[in-house]
Amino acid sequence: MRARDNPFATAHVHRIRYQFDVLTWAEFIDRLERMNYCGAIVGPEGAGKSTLLEDLRPKLRERGLQPVSLRLTRESPRFSTSALQELSATMTSQHVVLLDGAEQMSRWAWWRFRRCIRRARGLVITVHRSGLLPTVLNCDTTPELLVDLVRRLVPDEELSCEDLERLFHRHHGNIRDALRALYDEFGSQLPKTLCDKAAG
Q1: Beta strand segments in the chain, E
Q2: Alpha carbon 111 to chain centroid distance?
Q3: Distance (Å, rounded) from C-alpha 86 to C-alpha 90?
Q4: Longest Cα pair distance anywhere in the chain, in angstroms?
Q5: Model pTM greater than 0.85?
Q6: In what order do the strands lie in the sheet with 38-42?
Q7: Distance CA 104, CA 6 (A)
Q8: Domain covering 25-138, topology
Q9: Tell me, what's the pLDDT at 2?
Q10: Averaged over 98-122, what is the pLDDT?
């Protein structure tokens, strides 16, 4: 099977956007507005925080705001001095900074970053644990969420909920890693044995 034909390929998975459990988009934006566009999206790895932050961009533009997307990772855990200086020079009261991966920052780096963007209207971050900013949303994952995503990606396959639940726990609730495991298995296994093999 070619990689692009695999239903669990990144291109297919990325077409499925973040799904609120209870809130609607309008309610989420209203909550964020009440918090002066300053808050943290909290959750474990693979919970959809980055996807939610991406989808927030056009919603903010609809309200006349200018989102600025930034990202930190384990491989690139800090901003250079020149990048911070450039960022500081461009900030206005219409900007809302969207920072993915804020947990990578040290206390000193966090303080320095906040100082650089002090003229911005707001700051929304993703983190694994609460504490840096008031929590605007907790992103939790469940076995039921994995089942729903898998059935949307392969609606014609009969996949066992029990097997998918085991796969969910095997990857400690990390939906992204569970879907990667299914990608590997789907490329080499018959559909009917997919979940049995992935669940190990």
Answers
A1: 38-42, 66-71, 95-100, 122-127, 135-138
A2: 24
A3: 7
A4: 57
A5: no
A6: 66-71, 95-100, 122-127, 38-42, 135-138
A7: 33
A8: Rossmann fold (3.40.50)
A9: 58
A10: 96
